[in-house]
Amino acid sequence: MNLRSAFLLALAAALAGAAAPALAHQEPERGEQGAARREAQAGNIMRSSDIEARILPQMRDAEYLGFAYDSTARAYRLKFIKDGRVTYVDVDARTGRIIGRSR
């Protein structure tokens, strides 16, 4: 491979790497997390950070593992663990009210 070919190959790789984040940003979000973001932006449900701010203080003795959003139920499910036991807290995404707990 000559110097010009190597330069062009490196340039093409650099340009492709620079374009990847822009292309990823243009793709629509899919799945439940994307649905949650769109619904929150539209004002139909509370943002996940607002839900977490309400619920985490109530579960301070447990480790927070994250959440999932159910667009059909319009509910967040927050996952916690304490002493090796997992607890799910289901929260109405519109009101922030706890609608269920399961172990």
Descriptive notes:
- The protein has helices at residues 3-26, 31-41, 48-55, and strands spanning 63-70, 75-82, 85-92, 98-102.
- By secondary structure, the protein is an alpha+beta fold.
- It has one domain.
- Helices cover 42% and strands 28% of the residues.
- The termini are far apart.
- It is elongated.
- Strand 2 (75-82) and strand 3 (85-92) form a beta hairpin.
- The relative contact order is 0.12.
- Strands 1-2-3-4 form a four-stranded antiparallel beta sheet.
- It contains three helices and four strands, in the order H-H-H-E-E-E-E.
- Structural domain tally: 1
Shape: elongated
How would you name the oligomeric state of the polypeptide chains in this document?
single chain
* Helical coverage, percent range: 40-55%
Low-pLDDT regions = 22-27
Mean pLDDT: 83
Spatial arrangement of strands, main beta sheet = 1-2-3-4
Q: Cα distance, first to last residue? A: 62 Å
* Number of helices, counting only DSSP H or I runs of 4 residues or more: 3
Helix/strand-derived category reads alpha+beta
- SSE pattern, N- to C-terminal: HHHEEEE
Q: What's the main sheet like?
A: 4 strands, antiparallel
Q: Based on DSSP secondary structure assignment, what is the total number of beta strands? A: 4
| Portion in beta strands | 25-35%
As a whole number of angstroms, the C-alpha radius of gyration is 21 Å
